[in-house]
Amino acid sequence: MKDKDSNSILLRIFFLLYGVISYVIFLGTFLYAIGFVGNFIVPKTIDNGFQGGTDNAWVVNILLLSLFAVQHSVMARQGFKAWWIKIIPKPIERSTFVLLSSLVLILLFYFWRPLPGIIWNVDGAFTGTILTGLFFMGWLIVLVGTFLINHFNLFGLQQVYLNFNNREPEKPKFVKPLFYKIVRHPLMLGFIIAFWSTPQMTTGHFLFAIATTGYILVAIQLEERDMVKFHGKEYIKYQQEVSQIIPLPPKTREGILQKNYSE
Q: Which residue segment(s) compose the domain that 223 sits in?
C-alpha cells in the first residue's frame, strides 16, 4: 500500500514538473515570437537571419505554417482530446498540447526563410510609429486576454497543480469578461493586429500575415462549433449579442445577423 502511495506521489510530482517545464518553454516561445515578428532583439526574425537562402522559400515557409496549423487545429478539437487522453494522462493533456505547439513554433522560427521584397516601408515616419504601437497593442491584447479567461488553465499549469494536490478541476464556466464583451475572440484579434502592424512589410512577412490570418478565420469556425456543443444555448445567445472578431456597434451587428438569417 505504501509503495502504491509513493508511486502516486512521485507521478503527481512528475506531472507537476512536466507542466511547469512545458509552460516555461511556451513562455520563452511566446516572447521569442514577439521579437521574431517584430524584427528585434532575437537572432533570427521573420526578415533577418540566413536559413537556406531564398530557393524554394515560399514552399518551405508554407509547409512550416501548415505544420503548425494542422497540429494546432487537430489537437484543439474535442474529438481528438477524447481519444488523446486514452494515451496521455488527462492531467498533462493540456501541457502536452502546449509543449508540442511550442516545439512546432520553434521549428518554424528556426527554418523560416526570409523573403526580402518590400511591399511597404514607412519606418521612421509617423505612420510607422502608429504601426509599431499597434504591434505592441496586439500582443498586449493577447496576453491580457489569456488572463481574463484563466491563463494558467489555458496553458496547463492549473491542471497539473490541482492533480498534485489530488483535486479534480471544476467544470469550466462560460464567462465573458472585459474584451470578451466586445468581440468573442479577442486573442485572435490581437494576433491579427500584431501580425499586420509593421512599419516595413516584406514579402515574407506578408506571406506570414496572410497565412496566419486565414488560419485564424478557419480556426474560429471550428472553435465556435466546439463552444456551441459544450455550452449550448448560452453560447448561441452570446453569438447573437457579441461580434465574432471585428468590433461592431449593436445596430450594425443586428443588421448583419438579419441579413445572414434572411439568406
A: 2-262
Question: What is the C-alpha end-to-end distance of the chain, expressed in Å?
Answer: 65
DSSP labels, 215-239? HHHHHHHHHHHHHHHHHTHHHHHHH
Q: Which three cell numbers stand for residue 91?
A: 492531467
Contact of 107 with 119, CB cutoff 8 Å: no
Q: What are phi and psi of 121, to 5 degrees?
A: -150, 105
**How do beta strands 118-121 and 200-202 pair?**
antiparallel
**Residue-wise pLDDT tens digits, 80-110:** 888 888 899 999 999 999 999 999 999 999 9
CA distance 239 to 172: 18
Grid coordinates representing 17?
514538473
Task: Provide the whole-model pTM.
Answer: 0.88
For the chain, how many structural domains are there in total?
A: 1
Look up cell 474584451; give the residue.
179
Amino acid at the residue 11 = L
In the numeric block, which cell numbers belong to residue 11? 507521478
